Amino acid sequence: MQITFAHKQLTAWGEACAGVAKFLERIRFREWVLGHVFVEEHSPNAKGIYEKVLALLLTSLTGGTRFSHVTGWGHGLEGLKACFGVAWLPQATSVLTWFFGKFRQRHNEGLRAAAVALSTWKKARRWVVIRQHVPTRPKASGREPMPFRELEEHREYRYSVLVTHDTALAPEEIGCT
């Protein structure tokens, strides 16, 4: 008996990989990522936003719980790239940590938050007041309070108030969730 190998790229994830790839294609995941993940990459070494988000998704689907698990699905890398229609997938933890560091920076631009403690309820609560700069954050939620409409310095801002019992998170972190 002679054993031969096909010239097709193989991956240990086989049919599961093909099924996930078809699903992502059907829901237009690539278009969604490119239209909603507002990170600008200026480096000539930047390889693409979609590839990094896809790598995080694949890492999660294969049981990874940390950026360092990005290499856990590395077996059959060429097959994975072909299956998902990408030319590159990150192989280093630093690629994802740098990428998500940029996202957090960009995401928080134009957002300011402050907290005020309240104890009128049985359990103490805090008000988190969030101010978002609309030109920087075009999809800013919130309202323009009536008293501020006449004030020039507040016209470009939207305000929100959240009530929470969470004391561990910083106000900016609560405003981003």
Write a concise synopsis of the structure shown.
With 177 residues, this protein is of the alpha+beta class. It is 36% helix and 14% strand. Strands 1-2-3 form a 3-stranded antiparallel sheet.
Describe the structure.
There is one protein chain. This protein is 36% helix and 14% strand. With 177 residues, the protein is an alpha+beta fold. The chain has a three-stranded antiparallel sheet. A hairpin with a 6-residue loop joins strand 1 (111-118) and strand 2. The longest helix has 16 residues, at 93-108.
Strand percent estimate: 5-15%
Give the helix/strand class.
Answer: alpha+beta
- The count of β-strands is 3
Order of helices and strands: HHHHHEEEH
Distance between the termini: 60 Å
Rg estimate, integer Å:
22 Å
Task: Work out the helicity level.
Answer: 25-40%
Q: Whole-number average pLDDT?
A: 77
Strand order of the largest sheet: 1-2-3
Uncertain spans: none
- Rough shape? elongated
Main sheet attributes: strand count, strand direction, barrel closure:
3 strands, antiparallel
Compute the number of structural domains.
2
Q: How many DSSP H or I helices?
A: 6
Which terms summarize this structure?
177 residues; alpha+beta; 2 domains; 3 strands
What is the strand and helix layout of this fold?
Elements: H1 14-26, H2 29-36, H3 49-61, H4 77-84, H5 93-108, E1 111-118, E2 125-133, E3 157-164, H6 171-176
